[in-house]
Amino acid sequence: MIILKKAQLESIIDYARKNLPDEACGLLGGYIKNNERTVEKVFFLTNTDHSPEHFSMDPKEQFAAVKDMRKHGYALLGNFHSHPASPARPSVEDKRLAFDPSISYLILSLAEKDPVLKSFKIENKNSQEESITIL
């Protein structure tokens, strides 16, 4: 289970909308206790592909985010990206590029009027949805 504050969810939605028509992306840092992953900080990163169909995170921004996580004692909980015109489910490319089965992969769909956020665990190109709690 991944736990987000409502303000964090709203900031992810705002960031994704500001990046339209391209996909937006970022990292999530926080704490793991038992099987709960509590997000403490959302790191908004640049999609260097500038594409509505795929993303690559800026490497310098990724390193800075990980450095900040270490400074604050956070674990890398996962990443997020938006799907501007498709559902909140991992694409074939999302599954192919998911190298770490220990993290959460959040996908925000902006295809409908109301945004839809879902989280997945992905291992060996197989995905399983995990629950999200919004506080």
Short description:
Residues 2-135 form the MPN domain. GO terms for molecular function: metalloexopeptidase activity; zinc ion binding. This protein has 135 residues and is of the alpha/beta class.
CATH superfamily: Cytidine Deaminase, domain 2
Rg, Å, rounded:
14 Å
What amount of the residues lies in strands?
Answer: 35-45%
Termini gap: 13 Å
DSSP summary: helix tally: 3
Number of domains: 1
Element pattern in H and E: EHEEHEHEEEE
| Gross CATH architecture | 3-Layer(aba) Sandwich
- Principal-axes shape call: globular
Give start-end ranges of low-pLDDT stretches: none
Overall pLDDT score: 94
CATH topology: Cytidine Deaminase, domain 2
Helix/strand-derived class? alpha/beta
Q: What's the CATH class, please?
A: Alpha Beta
Helical amount: 10-25%
- Sheet with the most strands? 8 strands, mixed
Spatial ordering of strands, largest sheet: 7-6-5-4-2-3-1-8
| Beta strands, count | 8
Keywords: Hydrolase, Metal-binding, Metalloprotease, Protease, Proteasome, Zinc
GO molecular function, one term: metalloexopeptidase activity
Organism: Pectinatus cerevisiiphilus
GO cellular component, one term: proteasome complex
